[in-house]
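Lay summary. Proteins are chains of building blocks that fold into shapes, and those shapes determine what they do. In this project we predict the shape from the chain. Here is one chain we studied, written as its sequence of building blocks.
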Amino acid sequence: MKISIAMATYNGAQYIQEQLQSFVDQTRQPDELIITDDCYTDETEVIIQEFAKTAPFTVAFHRNEKNLGYCGNFNAALMKTTGDLVFLSDQDDVWFPEKIEHMIGVAERNPQALVVMNDAALTDGELNEVGLTKVGQIRSAGFSMKSFVMGCCCAVRRDLLDFCMPIPAGIKGHDNWIVFFAEAVNGKVVDDRVLQY
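And here is the predicted shape, written in a compact code that computers can read:
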């Protein structure tokens, strides 16, 4: 199974290094990392290009010609991926080392799943845990897992991306768009394991 990561960046220099390193530290590394940047004004590209020189997987950096906004930037990244299972990544998260390997297992055990999702520990700006997780918040509020659409916790099968991409103009959230299609055919699986900050 070929694994892609689609990462959207915008002025992420302050945080991105830790997330890039967490990809290298995976027990099952990705095959490709596709990054689209939404017209940065900081050192984001310099950091990524330095990282790409030694990364043990393909790193492709693309700068948008104009600012596309959050959803448009993720759309651009997703459209460039080639993996069978595509993980979405924000620039300011940090993945636990077993995230990719564990979620591949979830996908393999649930062949009907078009989207598989993990839980995330919420932190402050310094990655100090605040004692809450995203799934825990949803459940404690009495909501169903249909409320869980956090893109950075998603891995998406190629079959779904081939069906629902590109994301139409005017859609506010890439994750809402993708998860909507998965839920429409009972194809979302949420795993309770916390696998990232």
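What the prediction tells us: The chain has a mean pLDDT of 94.
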